[in-house]
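To illustrate the input format used throughout this study, we show a single complete record. The first block contains the structure-token representation of the backbone; no residue identities are included at this stage. The design step must infer an amino acid for every position from geometry alone.
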């Protein structure tokens, strides 16, 4: 029986998010994943992302959902999540619950206008677990890497993995080329029986005039080996007690800043 992502998270594991956190700031990794300190707040962008994915999941799985109904679903889900959280940090001083809800509606309008409904949705939020092996030694990582594919669809007669992103701006070419998440998704798709599926990122921007940036990315064996090497390196460094702080822009929006520098 396939486990949900929530169930997988209850067991020892690592993830692309955890690996990226260590690469950004070892101290935050230590506080978040080893000490498991409660964050002081939750970023509004994360709250938004949850509501965004849930609404697009409805669009993918339920045929002929009226546009206005999807708008209401997104608005209600976003407002509910924002109000359920004890502390939410908005990205900019001029962003409020009202403006974020308005932006969400405009983003959804653009997404529905620019992204044709796929012929079929094969999976939504498909959880996966990967046992990564070191390319040099063959050693298997002590814990599995877990995650979930946003959607697997049939489009133009071919299978495709969709990663449904929302962001403040469009992604750069380097982000698409080096993102570790896409590499993990490629392995997960192959192991899940979707070998040959394209990896498509659909990034809907929260700009004044929202847009949908669509990019098909490609991953090869070398990328997969590098993901495994990176995962091994991060876990070994963390086990060795490397938790140096990396001061920079990320400190301004870090929910563990108080614990890091009381």
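Output of the design step:
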């Amino acid at each position: 029986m396939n486990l949900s992502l929530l169930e997988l998270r209850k067991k020892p594991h690592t993830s692309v998010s955890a690996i990226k956190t260590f690469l950004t700031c070892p101290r935050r990794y230590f506080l978040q994943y080893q000490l498991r300190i409660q964050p002081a707040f939750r970023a509004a962008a994360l709250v938004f992302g949850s509501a965004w994915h849930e609404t697009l999941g409805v669009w993918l799985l339920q045929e002929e959902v009226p546009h206005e109904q999807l708008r209401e679903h997104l608005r209600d889900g976003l407002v509910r999540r924002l109000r359920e959280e004890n502390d939410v940090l908005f990205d900019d001083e001029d962003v409020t619950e009202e403006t974020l809800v308005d932006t969400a509606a405009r983003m959804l309008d653009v997404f529905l206008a620019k992204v044709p409904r796929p012929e079929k949705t094969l999976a939504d939020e498909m959880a996966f677990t990967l046992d990564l092996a070191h390319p040099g030694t063959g050693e298997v990582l002590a814990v599995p890497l877990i995650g979930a594919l946003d959607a697997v669809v049939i489009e133009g007669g071919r299978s495709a993995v969709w990663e449904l992103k929302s962001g403040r701006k469009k992604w750069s070419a380097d982000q698409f080329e080096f993102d570790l998440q896409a590499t993990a998704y490629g392995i997960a798709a192959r192991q899940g029986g979707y070998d040959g599926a394209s990896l498509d990122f659909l990034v809907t921007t929260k700009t004044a005039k929202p847009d949908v940036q669509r990019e098909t990315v490609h991953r090869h064996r070398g990328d997969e080996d590098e993901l495994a090497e990176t995962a091994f390196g991060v876990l070994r460094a963390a086990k060795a007690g490397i938790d140096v702080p990396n001061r920079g822009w990320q400190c301004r929006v870090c929910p563990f800043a108080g614990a890091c520098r009381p």
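Structural context for interpreting the output: The longest strand covers residues 120-130. The CA atoms of residues 70 and 134 lie 44 Å apart.
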